[in-house]
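Reopening this one. Same input as before:
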Amino acid sequence: MNMRLSSNRGVFPVFGVLILALTQIPQPTSAAQEDRPNIVLIMADDIGFECFSTYGSQEYSTPRLDALAADGIRFDNCHSTPLCTPSRVNLMSGKSNVFNYQDFGIYPKGEPTFAQHFKAAGYATAVAGKWQLLTGKGGISPTEAGFDTYCLWNTPRTNRERYWDPSLEQDGKLLSLSEEAYGPDICTEFLIDFIVDNADEPFLVYFPMILVHNPFPPTPDSEDRGSKDNKQNFIDMVNYMDKCVGRIVDALQANGLRDETLVIFTGDNGTNSVLTSEFQGRQIRGGKGYTHDYGTHVPLIANWPGRIPKAQVNNDLICFSDFYPTMVEAAGLKPKEISDGDGWSFWPQCLGKPGKKREWIYGYYFPRPYAAKFDDMYNHWEVRYARDARYKLYDNGQLYDTISDVLEKQAIAEDDTNQPAKQARQRLQEALDSYPDSGIGVDYRRVKGTRQSKFQE
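Same output, byte for byte:
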């Protein structure tokens, strides 16, 4: 077994209330590398919390993720943005989209990424799956983002096929694949090869999965390979996603790396709205694209044998800005000297400690600022909101009780005498006021129309 870890690995404190010092990019040293864990960050595409058996679903089966949660920690209150590119920018930069989001499909050029940080610290870095951060209008390549090697769909070189007969770019070249090739398998195997090849040095693996985004074709394990039933195929895709996660974990185990590796799993936004799932006695329509909880409430599981205590369930508020500083602290890397981001590390919670608890999280959603018109959940007016564990306040003054009114159908009146709601309104308004009142990265000269209230179903 590879024994790179030692018991005196440094752990750094959690910083700040709003603007957090995230990570200083250090020069790599061989001595430091020997003490650092591997990091594997897996993010499924278009799947909310309701589609996982570890969260209570009886309709979907995710045994490998269930096992990771049972042997680690499950977070029950993690929130993404409602759509894929905004979540990816948020995750990779450790910043709310209000600070740096420019347009759909684009990662802001010059914005530091967690991959750049780990690479500069001596880590080997790889990414496979879905990119969607570079278009003809801007963005960055995987190499510019800090990844040594990659195998990706949704780059400027690829076409639309991602599952059967997929179009994948690997390290600057389109792969020549057979019609029977299945994209998620190709990406999984690429990362397994990377793990094997880099077993003797610390590595960062980022797996923004192709699964389980539409279209919904059968998987290699589907009983009916000709099925046109979107819901049954989606169930099969969830099962196959879980299987791919298990293959990565098995590769770590087979190469003597499991006890040296932090595995984090999440989803980028809620489930596709064409799908409805049974969950604990109620029907949940997927909320992708919407800012209510079914659009932002995603799974979060962290597992590191021997370091993260087993069978933990945590209800602290977590947002996507928090992943970057968490991975940095877990790896023992130094924080950035310049305050740059609004993430808080939840690594102490992973270790079973109280950590720094958020009273609220902030959300910003303007996925396609330069759309011809804003009339649905994917072409959405700019909206800002702050939420605590129960209440959510939008920048137009609408306050909702997310427990009794999860779809946000009836705003709470400003003159409501309910004291908890009144106190929440004041507290959340202060949170909104602590952020910019519009997106810093948006060119408002190009925005058509004027700001409206949030889009309603």
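So the earlier flakiness isn't reproducible anymore. For the record, The longest helix spans residues 230-254.
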